[in-house]
Amino acid sequence: MQFDSSLPIWMQLVTEFSRRIVVGQWPAGARIPGVRALAAELGVNPNTIQRALSELEREGLCRSERTSGRFVTEDTDRIDRLRADLAEEAADDFIQHARGFGMGRSQAQQLLTERWKHHDHDSNGRPQTEGA
Amino acid sequence: MTTPAQKRHPLISTRGLTKTFGQVTAIDSLDLELDGGRIVGLLGENGCGKTTLMKILAGVISDYQGEARIAGLVPGPASKAKVSFLPDTSFLPDGARARYCVDLYSDFFEDFDAAKAHELLRFFGLDESMRLKAMSKGMREKVQIALAMSRRAEVFLLDEPISGVDPAARQIILDGILGTLEEDSLLLISTHLIHDLEPILDSVVMMRHGSVVLAGEADDLRAAHRASLDDIFKETYR
Questions:
Q1: Could you list the residue range(s) of the whole structural domain that residue A60 is in?
Q2: pTM of the shown model
Q3: Shortest CA distance to B142 belongs to which of B101, B173, B171?
Q4: Would the ipTM clear 0.85, i.e. be above it?
Q5: Disulfide-capable partner of B210 in A70, B49, B129, B178 (CB 3.0 to 4.6 Å)?
Q6: Closest partner residue to A6 among B175, B178, B231, by Cβ?
Q7: Cα separation of B201 and B4, whole Å?
Q8: What is the mean pLDDT, run by run of 10 residues, along chain A of 132 residues?
Q9: A69 and A87 share a domain?
């Protein structure tokens, strides 16, 4: 994973971990890898990982058990809400950019429809590539 | 990880620390306090006093003014048992093989974990039967880092540990450091290659003309300046 050094890394980790939960890489109820393992995997300071996981916990996306570690929430409604939030953010990003290019709503919608088809075709039979 | 219940003492503290070389003031009334369980970047241009500060903390320079404490002790023979210092120069005998250097460290330091050193050397892809003089600069640095990081020290002082190696090797070295660091120990790492260290630093101390110009949590600084540490550094030293 590449980080944007101009943004707090713990926030980028919250986004990355949320993505892992939403796509099922970390399924509901599953044990989350330990802080040190994640630090080693991502090449990030363990305290930064800790801060991101605490934030996930605060948001009700995981819980920690004193002896056995941290687990993804079993509340699938909560995960659905997260998925909706992330999708909304992506949509907002798109709208902001599209507006920046001087696009109107119907133009943007049309573009979205076209590109959607393109991506359907593109990912035919292949798994979607994950974001870097 | 930090346990709030545990009373924390700074592992490094200085008060009014000053060191002059003739007319030149290398460290100018420096106040510093650093806790355990953290990786701290000591940043600054050449000649800002980073190495002098490291040497004072390591107990190599003793004719300074003001106060310095490391692992609760005045830097000196007793503190050296608790502090692992990696100087910015080569200090191992040229003709020695890597394996012999591990034995040397085992004899020197009670807290040295030889198994860990062998593991790190393997992780760095080094052949232990190779003599240091046959090694490239980067390979020698890796040997020295493997040795320094294999002590169960309370404080690690690494002076420019990645300056002489190519970017690919830097990443391997940083991964090695990250993977072996004890949870409660303090790692103070001086560098001017900030970009490579961005993701692993908890906090930074930026020095100029022997004193601190900027210090803080890495992510807080990023949020406040909306910039990378690298860019903040360039802005600070402009």
A1: 9-74
A2: 0.86
A3: B173
A4: no
A5: B49
A6: B231
A7: 21
A8: 91 96 96 93 93 96 90 96 94 95 94 90 55 44
A9: no
